[in-house]
């Protein structure tokens, strides 16, 4: 039996955040997932965070300085919760004893459009 595809009117509307990450030690994509989930759970709680539909779509290492490592990522979230995710990311400031700063560069409706900002 073939699975049916949901029509566009019943699908969740997603938005893609392009995020700039600066941290004092190197991290992996799995570490970033943990940072994002931890920040959202601390700020919004588990019940609201479950509705965000968070997913790290792309993860790029951009630059390495003496002071910090620079990464960029594309994060998917549900359209109704974009402001909640952005505020939770802005409040994350520590990871494993290392300082971290995450800022949202762009918001778009497709991955292709968000890749322009990387």
Q: How many independent structural domains?
A: 1
Helical percentage: 25-40%
What is the terminal-to-terminal distance? 41 Å
Unreliable spans = none
Instruction: Kindly name the structural category.
Output: alpha+beta
Rg over CA atoms, rounded to whole Å, is 15 Å
Mean of residue pLDDT values: 93
For this structure, what is the CATH homologous superfamily?
Ribonuclease P, Pop5 subunit
Could you tell me the CATH topology label.
Alpha-Beta Plaits
Q: SSE order in H/E notation?
A: EHHEEHEEH
Strands of the widest sheet, in order across it, are: 2-3-1-5-4
**Structure summary, number of beta strands:** 5
Q: Can you identify the CATH class?
A: Alpha Beta
Overall 3D shape: globular
Tell me which CATH architecture applies here.
2-Layer Sandwich
How would you describe this structure to a colleague?
With 118 residues, the protein is an alpha+beta fold. The protein has one domain (14-112): Alpha-Beta Plaits (2-Layer Sandwich), CATH 3.30.70.3250. The protein contains four helices and five strands; from the N terminus they run βααββαββα. It has a five-stranded antiparallel sheet with strand order 2-3-1-5-4. A hairpin with a 4-residue loop joins strand 2 and strand 3. Helix 1 packs across helix 3 (82-91). The longest helix has 16 residues, at 29-44. The mean pLDDT is 93.
């Amino acid at each position: 039996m073939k699975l049916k595809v949901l029509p566009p009117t019943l699908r969740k509307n997603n938005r893609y955040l392009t995020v700039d990450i600066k941290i004092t030690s190197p991290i992996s994509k799995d570490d970033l997932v943990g940072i994002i989930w931890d920040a959202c759970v601390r700020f919004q709680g588990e019940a609201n965070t479950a509705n965000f539909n968070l997913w790290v779509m792309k993860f790029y290492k951009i630059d390495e300085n003496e002071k910090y490592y620079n990464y960029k990522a594309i994060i998917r979230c549900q359209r109704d919760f974009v402001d909640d995710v952005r505020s939770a990311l802005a409040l994350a400031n520590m990871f494993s004893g290392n300082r971290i700063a995450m800022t949202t560069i762009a918001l778009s409706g497709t991955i292709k459009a968000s890749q322009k900002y990387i």
